[in-house]
Structures are given as C-alpha cells and as structure tokens.
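Long-time lurker, finally posting.

We've been working with DUF3592 domain-containing protein (Faecalibacterium butyricigenerans) and I want a structural starting point before designing mutants. I don't trust myself to interpret raw outputs, so I'm hoping someone here can both generate the structure tokens and explain anything notable. Sequence follows.
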Amino acid sequence: MFNIIIFLIGSGIMFYMAWRSWSRRRRLMTRGEKVEAAVAGTVQSRDGEAYLLEFSTAGGIHHLHYPKPAKGRELAQGTVVTLYYDPDDPAEMYVEGDKSVLGAEVLYIVLGIVLLVLMAGIVH
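Top reply, 14 upvotes:
Generated this for you. Predicted structure of DUF3592 domain-containing protein:
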C-alpha cells in the first residue's frame, strides 16, 4: 500500500510540473508582451551560460538573459527570435519554439505515465 501511495504522489508531482510549465508558457504567450529580440551574444549568468537578448520598446532598449539550453540548436549572434515576457517581472520569459521547455513538459508527462504504469504493475 505504501508503494502505491509513493507512485501516486510521484505521478501527481510530474503531472503538476507539466501543467505548471504549460500554464506559465501559455500565460506569457497570451498576457505577456510579444517582441522581436536579437541575440546580442552570450553572457555568464548566475545559472550558467545565457543568451543576451536585446529588444526595444517605447521605454527604450532592454537586455534580458535567457538560459542557454545544454542541448539543442545554438542561436548565433544577430539571430532574431520571438520573445514573450512579463513587463512586471522580465525574468519570466519564453522564447517561442524553445525545444528545451517543450521537451521538459513532455518528459514530465511521460514520467507521470510511467509511474502510473509501474504502480498498476505493483497492484496486480
């Protein structure tokens, strides 16, 4: 019985993480500011290497650090990307088509399903 509870909790956490990531991304895409940003280079941030994204608004030129994924395609300097961000909290941002964010959501769902299948195997 204890194993079933552990698998249910683990599966629930995985589904919650997928939902949280999806809902944050959707919120940024529907309520956030959409801008075209140019990759101005890479910088070392507190979380590792990041792309320096530069864009301009009526308030001036802005620079944001977007975490560089460990795997995936490199963004060359000068590449233009579509960026969604929260003007009240610019650290909340999403670059359209970022495969690492989408991959994480799929991974959470797959892990949640695997945990449920393993739990079903224990029950029978």
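Before you design anything, note these points.
The chain has a mean pLDDT of 88.
The chain is about 45% helix and 35% strand.
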